[in-house]
């Protein structure tokens, strides 16, 4: 009988302690909720942050160089609520890196925020595999958007028109075109007998001269009379052909 009374008293104490603890738990949860709300209220919510990033993207697009597009912008700081975009920090107009800074303003006070961008450039890529030494023309390439800050930096967006050209190295289909990928074929080699068209006003004559070096079409090469004479510089116009214009 004594054991039964003790058990009833223990149960009563347990129930009383449980009931007494409820208001404290409720208060602690409410306090934590209020604290979270206060913290949230001092920072931009996701929608406002997205709007601010969209505004940065628009401004970047206005100063991006021709052939580049801005795909995405992300602020890497935690701006205060009410912050607005004041300016893109000077220097980003070089677009040499995906990282940059923006100036924000709130209550007439400026702050600076780091940001990153995802951008693409339109460049020429090979339509097919091109072998080293193979003659290439503009139709061997097509325009394509690729990462502006990847290995494509320096890739050509237009095919140069000083050709003809041959590929300096093997180029796989889809790879971007660089200036050093193209070389002009050698049209005159050292020791070649070159037909030189000499122009002097309305008078033109042809001369057979010997090349002292090699050069592609459009470059200059030194030639001399095989029988002995003064070396002259002529402009290569084709295979074993050149031109000399006298003033």
What's this, in brief?
This protein has 247 residues and is α+β, with helices and mostly antiparallel strands.
Low-pLDDT residue spans: 1-6, 15-40
Class inferred from helices and paired strands: alpha+beta
The proportion of residues in beta strands is 35-45%
Q: Roughly what is the average pLDDT, rounded to an integer?
A: 83
Count of domain modules: 4
The shape, in one word, is elongated
Proportion of helical residues: 10-25%
Rounded to an integer in angstroms, the radius of gyration calculated over CA atoms is 37 Å
Instruction: Give the SSE order as H and E letters.
Output: HHEEEEEEEEEEEEEEE
The major β-sheet equals: 5 strands, antiparallel
What gap, in angstroms, lies between the N and C termini? 134 Å
Number of helices: 2
The tally of strands reads 15
Structural write-up:
The protein has helices at residues 2-41, 46-63; strands at 68-75, 84-88, 99-106, 109-126, 135-136, 141-147, 165-167, 182-183, 186-188, 193-200, 203-211, 215-216, 220-224, 232-238, 241-245. Strand 10 and strand 11 form a beta hairpin. It is α+β, with helices and mostly antiparallel strands. The longest helix has 40 residues, at 2-41. It is elongated and about 90 Å long. The chain has four domains: 1-41; 46-120, no CATH class; 122-183, Type Iii Antifreeze Protein Isoform Hplc 12 (Alpha-Beta Complex), CATH 3.90.1210; 186-245, SH3 type barrels. Strands 1, 2, 3, 4 and 6 form a five-stranded antiparallel β-sheet that branches. A five-stranded mixed barrel has the order 10-11-13-14-15.
């Amino acid at each position: 009988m004594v054991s039964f009374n003790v058990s009833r008293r223990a149960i009563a104490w347990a129930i009383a302690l449980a009931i007494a603890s409820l208001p404290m738990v409720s208060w602690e949860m409410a306090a934590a909720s209020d604290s979270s709300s206060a913290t949230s209220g001092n920072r931009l919510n996701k929608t406002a942050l997205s709007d601010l990033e969209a505004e940065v993207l628009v401004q970047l697009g206005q100063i991006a160089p021709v052939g580049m597009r801005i795909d995405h912008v992300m602020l890497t700081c935690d701006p205060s609520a009410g912050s607005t975009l004041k300016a893109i920090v000077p220097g980003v107009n070089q677009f040499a890196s995906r990282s940059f800074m923006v100036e924000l303003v709130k209550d007439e006070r400026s702050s600076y925020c780091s940001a990153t961008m995802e951008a693409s450039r339109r460049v020429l890529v090979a339509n097919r595999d091109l072998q080293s030494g193979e003659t290439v023309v503009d139709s061997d390439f097509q325009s394509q958007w690729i990462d502006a800050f990847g290995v494509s930096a320096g890739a050509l967006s237009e095919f140069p028109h000083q050709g003809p050209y041959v590929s300096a190295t093997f180029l796989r289909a889809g790879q971007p075109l660089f200036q050093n990928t193209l070389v002009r074929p050698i049209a005159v080699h050292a020791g070649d007998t070159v037909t030189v068209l000499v122009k002097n006003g309305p008078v033109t004559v042809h001369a057979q001269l010997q090349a002292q070096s090699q050069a592609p079409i459009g470059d200059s090469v030194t030639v001399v009379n095989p029988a002995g004479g003064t070396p002259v510089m002529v402009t290569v116009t084709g295979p074993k052909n050149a031109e000399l214009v006298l003033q």
